[in-house]
Amino acid sequence: MQADHLWENIRVWTGSTAGETPMGHQHYAIAEKAGLICWVGPQEEAPPATTIIDGENHLATPGLIDCHTHLIYAGDRAHEWRMRLEGARYEEIASAGGGIVSTVSAVRTASEETLIAQSMPRLDAMIAQGVTTVEIKSGYGLDTENETKLLRAARRMGALSPVTVKTTFLGAHAIPKGENADAYIEDVCTNQLPAVARDGLVDAVDAYCEKIAFTPAQIERVFKTAKEYGLPVKLHAEQLSNFGGARMATKFGALSCDHLEYLDEDGAAAMAAAGSVAVLLPGAFYFLNETKKPPVELLRKLGVPMAVASDCNPGTSPLTSPLMAMNMACVLFGLTPREAFLGMTKNAAAALGLQSETGEIAAGKWCDLAFWDAPSIDSLIQNMGQNPLTDRIWRGKSSEKEI
Hints:
About 35% of the residues lie in helices and about 20% in strands. By secondary structure, the chain is of the alpha/beta class. It folds into 2 domains: about 5-60 and about 360-400, Urease, subunit C, domain 1 (Roll), CATH 2.30.40; about 65-350, Metal-dependent hydrolases (TIM Barrel, Alpha-Beta Barrel), CATH 3.20.20.140. Strand 8, helix 6 and strand 9 (about 205) form a beta-alpha-beta unit. Helix 12 (about 320-335) packs across helix 13.
């Protein structure tokens, strides 16, 4: 076998090898052919390659995966942050016309080009910290025209950038101002979701299950419609209360349930049985100054895989740093650095249904890599505000230079 590229003189943290240390395997190499990893192992056993790159003893990891973002939006909600600092609760702000509905107004008046121009710097910031796959949700349009606009913008951003973009339809994100919840769900199921599915704009369907949004019964109808179009589902669940959303979502084989601060044992057991990933979002927990933590020890005990994501959004987690998200997951939620890193690689891939394609350094998977001038994954996560990325490889191609 003749590889196209071979990275040698590196330390490799594969994210899949049992018992591998935070420093990775010493004196390893990675070979790539046609955008896929074709070999990984001890350097002295490496296959021949057309191009050989000296990794300068840097640490190679899987490229990072941000599996939960609301990255495309318009407008500014800094005033809501100030209100929360002054004592207002998120529910109060939402009830007063702020929150998601505020962003909806800004998105509806913005053109597709404006949305892309305002959102691309956020995507670039993630790419600059080693992200090779990112999920982008809609949910700030709340009608067919504007939900389609958001998802079309997400597809275009993926085409313009060296990153894999997975799109999620989140029409059931909030009740539009002045509308009835049941009537709006009818519109989501009969107009919005069919339109974006027919246009090939969506990879999965999400919803917000909470007392300030939609009930499990209402969301169940959305998920039934998603299944009619062959689309997998996921859910914003148990963020502000235990509303039973996670249990409901597992009946539909949900890829993930996200937030989960109020998840109970029955819900966690249902997730374990369904193979659903628990996506933890420490940015929102921090930004909202919450105190109720997701039940990490329970998730560990039941074997529910845990992912970590930025939840990048304008109102509750304006975060574009995957490294900071992992640090927060360790400090605020008690994850180990290994759990946090798996949460932004292997388990994040599973939360997007991509576990057979990316998330680990293993033969047959996309050659999505991040190279770090760091001694270990522990060091990467510990050092707040630093970015030791030296190169990022997406499908075999370098972001730093042509190889």
